[in-house]
Amino acid sequence: QVQLQESGPGLVKPSQTLSLTCTVSGGSITTNYYYWSWIRQPPGKGLEWMGAIAYSGSSHYSPSLKSRTSISRDTSKNQFTLQLSSVTPEDTAVYYCARGGVILWDYWGQGTQVTVSS
């Protein structure tokens, strides 16, 4: 059973960089041909796919967030990390990590609330 767990600060100040880590257990992030995604849900809105890192290590981003988003990984720890720069209150959301690509995910973390506020 694959399990994912998000970790990181729950409060970030405007203009700073949001950084979250997803720790995966029960499966390797380098296993062919899986992708590992970050998805968020702002209050009162739907899910938004932010980007993913592939089993190969290549990263792919939503066009709307590409300029501010970076996804990397640490294979020794079986973790992948999201960095979102220049955050504003509009980036307040529940952030999820999940296994899958742009539109289909089969395993999810429980989600972590991130609030952008001074």
Describe the 3D structure.
The strands form two sheets. Strands 2, 4, 5, 6, 9, 10 and 11 form a seven-stranded mixed β-sheet that branches. The protein has no helices and eleven strands. It has 118 residues and is an all-beta fold. It is globular and about 40 Å long.
List the helices and strands and how they pair.
Layout: E1 3-7, E2 11-12, E3 18-25, E4 35-41, E5 48-54, E6 59-61, E7 69-74, E8 79-84, E9 93-100, E10 105-108, E11 112-116
Parallel strand pairs: 2-11
Antiparallel strand pairs: 1-3, 3-8, 4-5, 4-9, 5-6, 7-8, 9-10, 9-11
Q: Determine the fraction of residues in helical runs and give it as a percent range.
A: under 10%
Mind summarizing the main beta sheet?
7 strands, mixed
What would the average pLDDT be, to the nearest integer?
97
What gap, in angstroms, lies between the N and C termini? Answer: 39 Å
Total of DSSP H or I helical runs spanning 4+ residues = 0
Summing up helix and strand content along with how strands pair, one would put the structural category as mainly beta
Strand content: over 45%
- Total number of β-strand segments? 11
- What value does the Rg take, in angstroms? 13 Å
Q: Which geometry do the CA atoms define?
A: globular
